Every structure is written in structure tokens, then in C-alpha cells.
Amino acid sequence: MSGHSKWHNIQKTKGAADAKKAKVFTKYAREMAIAIREGGSADPNSNSKLAATIARAKTENVPNDNIKRTLDKYKAGGSAENYEYVTYEGYGPGGIAVIVDCLTDNRNRTVADVRHHLDKYGKGMGNAGCVSWQFDKKGVLVMDGEDQDEETVMMQAIDAGAEDFVSEDGVFEIYTAPDDFDKVRDALKAQGYEFVEAEQQMVPQNYVTLTDEEDVKNMTRLLELLEDNDDVQNVWHNWENED
Predict the structure, then answer these.
(1) What 3-state DSSP class applies to 56?
(2) Which of 207, 219, 234, 235 could anchor a disulfide with 101, C-beta 3.0 to 4.6 Å?
(3) Buried b vs exposed e over 62-78: b needs ≥16 C-beta within 10 Å?
(4) Secondary structure (DSSP) of 180-237
(5) 95-107 in b/e burial notation, b at 16+ Cβ within 10 A?
């Protein structure tokens, strides 16, 4: 494990995107709608997928009022919109591998948007599987390491079932197998820990550094446009942004 999670690699870009609270709220409102539709209930006590979605939403500071408003909408008889998950793969400038996870009610609109951005600022969209082989799916828990005892946190994470623990630049990154993510997260929460980020990610096996100034500019713009799109849930890539 390189120790470079999505958080470490593009934390400035991620932070800028997360500052747009409406985008975050929209993301989780859609995910909750799918969880309700697939789980058949707007009650998180009887819908484990919905409960897991709400837990992730709270990690990203979605207010309880927003969560309650969404639940009340469906408890009152609202129908869960026909959203579906789609994933697109392609290439950024310099051959950077890019995976775009989307949640959409209109595939034609979404694929057109993603293709346009990849064509304009990268090397275009590819077929399914063209770059995903360069990534491993992992559960990733990110903690602020300030005022925390590194060895204590590491041992508790490993005891809970984590695969790897990385401490870098005052940040703890805890990696799990996908199936162990919820178990490890819940065990550490029970110990009183809070997370800067907690989600399943596509972690690159290797990273690429861009040396051409124009490539850096285009890659930055590509990420901004993709992450600003309401249909886009996550953008994974193997760019080592050293700025």
C-alpha cells in the first residue's frame, strides 16, 4: 500500500468540492433514494443499506435536518426516483487513469457530459475496464492524527480488522477490505474516534506525476468540472498532485 489515498492525493481539490454543501446534500439525497427503493423501507432500523448511507452522510457533515427531510418525504409516500449507478472510465492528460462514478436519472445526459470533459481536457473516454485494472477497491478511513496516539490507534484499527495503517503529514489513513469496512468503521466509532472521510474508494496501485504545465492545468480543470456535475458521485484517478 503506497499510503496515498484519494484524500492525501487530492485533498485540496476534495476540500474545495466538499465546501459546496449543496453538492454533498444532493449526492446523499440520491443515495438515500436508491437505498429506500432497494431496501423497501424509509426506516433505517429495518433497512441496513439506508442506515449505512446515513452513516456516511453524517461523516461528511450532512445536517440531521436534511436527512430527516429526505426520510420524511418517502415515509409520506413519495416514490424513490429512478436513479441508477453508472461508471465511466477514460484518460486524462498525460495518460492519467480516470474513473467517474455517477448516480443519474438520465444516462444520455450524464455520458455526454463526462465524455465532453474527458475529450476537451484529457485523452477521451475508454471502454469499461480500460483503466480500472490499475486500482484496488478498499475501504478507507481518514482521521486527523493531531492529539492522537499513533500506536494506540493503529493497534485498535488492526484489532478491528483493518488491513493497513498509514500515518503521514499528521493524517491517519486506515485501509480495509471492502467487506470489512463497516465492521472496522463501527468498531473505531465505538472507541470514540471521528473521521475526516470514511468511504469505499478505488485506490491506485501506482501514481503518475505530470511535468508539463499545460497538462497540470488541464487535469485540474477536468477534476473541477467532473466534481461540479451533480450526477457525479466520485472521481478516482492516479495523478500524484504535488502542488
Answers:
(1) helix
(2) 234
(3) beeebbeebbebbeeee
(4) GHHHHHHHHHHTT---SEEEEEEEESS-B---SHHHHHHHHHHHHHHHHSTTEEEEEE
(5) ebbbbbebbbeee
CA-nearest of 4, 18, 10 to 241 is 10
Asked if residue 86 lies in contact with residue 109, where contact means CB atoms within 8 angstroms, the answer is no
Coil vs helix vs strand at 124: strand
Where b means 16+ CB within 10 Å and e means fewer, 120-141 reads: ebbeebbeeeebbebbeebbbb
Helix residue ranges per DSSP H, the chain: 6-18, 21-39, 48-59, 64-75, 107-121, 150-160, 181-190, 213-228
User: In this structure, how many other beta carbons lie within 10 angstroms of the beta carbon of residue 144?
Assistant: 13
CB 24 within 8 A of CB 62: yes
pLDDT in tens for each of the 243 residues of the chain?
A: 334 444 444 444 444 444 456 778 888 888 898 888 888 888 999 998 899 889 888 877 888 999 999 898 888 766 666 888 999 999 999 999 999 999 998 999 999 999 999 999 999 999 999 999 999 999 999 999 888 999 999 999 999 999 999 998 889 999 999 999 989 999 999 999 988 888 889 999 999 999 999 999 999 999 999 988 989 989 999 999 855
Query: All 3 cell numbers of residue 30?
Result: 440520491
pTM, 2 dp: 0.80
62 alpha carbon, distance to own chain's centre: 15
